Amino acid sequence: MGTQASAWQLFWPKPEPNEPWATELNDWHDIADLERRCGVRSGAPILLDAAGNYDPTIGRFMASGAFSSLAEGTQHSYTLDYRLFFSFLAHRNKSWREATPDDIDDYEHWRRRDEANPSPIGGSRWNRGIAAINRLYEWAVTRGELIRSPILKHTITTHDRRTAEVPTALAHDARSADVKWLTPRAYRKWRDIGLRGYNKEGLLREDYRGRCDARDASFTDFMKESGLRRRELGALFKIELPEISAGVAFPHGYVPYAIAKRAQRYFWVSRRALSAAYAYCSTTRAQAVKQAQQTGKYQNLRNKIIATVSNDRRTIMYSSRGEPRRVPLDAVDARMRQSLFLETADGLEPLQLWLTETGLPMGYTSWNVVFRSANERCHDAGLDLWCTPKMLRHSFALQMLVSIQYAFIRRLGLDKAERDYITEIYGDAWSLVKDLLGHRSIETTKSIYLEPVSGLRLDALFTGDVIEDVSDLIIRVAEHKELILDLTR
């Protein structure tokens, strides 16, 4: 199914501040007023059919708690799933209300096995899509919009002996650990070649003309040393960076509720990575802000909002429609964060930490382009190295678990009996890593993020020699698990 006239279109009403067409639209506050009159949740995606028609039932679903309670990234992914599914049905001259179980079967065949599909998907990706579609139809049936759902289901018994109804169309070949990790030395090589302009020999390339290398390397170092998600780190304000205190190796910060996946939480980051972020603020970022101030770029933005921050940095005051509002910093989502500016002695300055080369707030999804470009540079250099934001988060989890276990088993001088005792309370280490990652369930931490050490006794890796750097221990783990990407692979 290629791009055809019957394809549905997706529209987010509020443009990102750094998009070139943003200033061509009407004032976004007028759009917000129109959204309220039409019953559209502010900032919610809008799906239109090929004729430009808006389905109010889909709009109500996207404004409902069944959809809006999902994490922002999940909402984005599900919306793309809906657009593709509705477009598939449109090619059959059907609306989403007319879908049948046969349509679901045919859609599954096209998505996964049809030779006419240039980009077939695997089981995990299909299961996410069917979960999205199922959520819509369950809501529609519950609200009386439909009599029945086209998603057939069957009953299963869960691990805790409860029963649950699951879609029959779920794939059985979905891999829960279809990810890769990086050893510390592999990450450094990827960063230096992909982001900082070095060659395989560790020398700066003569043809390199990097302009954002300090920003990009600082971002990935911070992610690697904190385990923050892409949105959590990408949407941070500058004022939300943790303070550097003498003698504190891992300063802690706070992830606000509106940009966290599920709930606000604390995070810890290495002093080195935090120092690099502050260095970025005082150099590359400061230069971009100064240039934007001098050229009047900030003053000319139509969708900017001037804000003031309370002394305790817990609330901000801003006026979006001529009326002052006092809002907890915890409630400002990623989209709104890109519109907030401070009035300083030198002029306007974005509150957001990460900026584009021209000084505008950088959308957190833009980091995908940075990672993709870095991967291409590594490939051009003849290296079989690649990285994604999720890989850095996974690598952080692995390094923390190995570090904790090493501290238990070797640095504390435990004998075998004591090591056996530690094994009995192994959950304590898992719980700590779970909290660092911001997971609700320890099973998620065990079964997905730390698959490389499942079934592997870490104490078998401790051969009695003194290990000065835990990264050497991770290299040993990599020798046993192919999912960990190292320089030798």
Assembly type of the shown chains?
Answer: single chain
Please state the CA-atom Rg, rounded to the nearest Å.
25 Å
Overall mean pLDDT: 80
The string of secondary-structure elements, in order, is EHEHHHHHEEEHHHEEHEEEHEEHHHHHHE
Estimate the global geometry from the Cα principal axes. Answer: globular
Q: What report would you give on this structure?
A:
The chain has 489 residues and is an alpha+beta fold. The protein folds into three domains: 9-167, Orthogonal Bundle (DNA polymerase, domain 1); 236-362, no CATH class; 389-485. Helices cover 43% and strands 11% of the residues. It is built from 17 helices and 13 strands. The chain has a five-stranded mixed β-sheet with strand order 10-9-8-11-12, with no helix packed on it. Strands 1-2 form a two-stranded antiparallel ribbon. A two-stranded antiparallel sheet has the order 3-4. A hairpin with a 2-residue loop joins strand 11 (340-344) and strand 12. Helix 8 (213-226) runs antiparallel to helix 10 and helix 8 (213-226) crosses helix 13 (389-411). The longest helix has 25 residues, at 271-295. The radius of gyration is 25 Å and the shape is globular.
